[in-house]
């Protein structure tokens, strides 16, 4: 049996050869990039990579090595692409990121829209972000709010995107891809739900509970103790409070804020309904302009990927390679394309950083329907 020292010497020898070959390969990637700069051909050639991987895998002697070869060469070609993007970027051939840096987001003389009615959590988030005196109006649906921004009827919309206990508000993700609107800020507020009924009603009277689906989810544990209550989803927690007041029926209750109780003259039948004491919702501030604050430090993007092994891994490698830290990933099914998804990613950075530009321009080249949702 060979001793460990001798085996390691052989491994070192082989690794040295791999490094030299890798560097030779990267020199060829440089030549490829020059060819592509001259001819305008795209860096990423999915078909070429697929046929290369098949050919290389066929050279391997067993399944374990076949898998290893596949992973190894996926990485090598991914590095080759990233190197080529850097060379194209130097020649200004990757295009600019079409967002305008601004010192500050305009807060004076602006009109803001939120979804729901007086007393909605979105209204609280709006007051928190823009101040109590802000000129504002409300609409029935998230779509109406997005349309008001697109049509310039409002400068900004305040929309809930994620709750700390119930998760993402998926409708908002879908609307962000559909509309040409962009995120310029965010506001997190603590959410404390209460059970509200009409004056004189008591817990024993209740048969039906109204709220936004997120309100019902955030209070799921409490509602589980009252399985005899019928749960009905409405567009907004404050709209639910308004309905209970309008119907004036002691068997109805709403899950909404205590502020909504005050506005609609309802009684608080039970406080602290949400199961998480730190229950909070993150709201986004949306506008129709492609702008970002110079000191913004969070970027949201989305893109679609074909249903093939390694595609998401490839996209994420742009973050790893450029040393960018991801804070969230979310996926939404694509309409009419079963089991294909749109991916939404939040990560730290500013659109002016060169690492961010490199990562985004690489992703733009390799994914379809890439969109920068905002830097805030
Ligand atoms: O052959 C090319 O067109 C290259 O750019 C080289 C290479 C590789 O490294 O093998 C890199 C990127 C392409 O997606 C395909 C292959």
UniProtKB/TrEMBL annotation:
Pathway: Metabolic intermediate biosynthesis; prephenate biosynthesis; prephenate from chorismate: step 1/1; Amino-acid biosynthesis; L-phenylalanine biosynthesis; phenylpyruvate from prephenate: step 1/1
Matching InterPro entries: ACT-like_dom_sf, ACT_dom, Chor_mutase/pphenate_deHydtase, Chorismate_II_sf, Chorismate_mutase_GmP, CM_dom_sf, CM_II_prokaryot, Preph_deHydtase
Domain ACT: 300-376
Example GO BP: chorismate metabolic process
Cytoplasm is among the record's keywords: yes
Record-linked NCBIfam families: CM_mono_grmpos, PRK11898.1
Name this protein carries in UniProt: Bifunctional chorismate mutase/prephenate dehydratase
Naturally occurring in which organism (per UniProt): Anaerobium acetethylicum
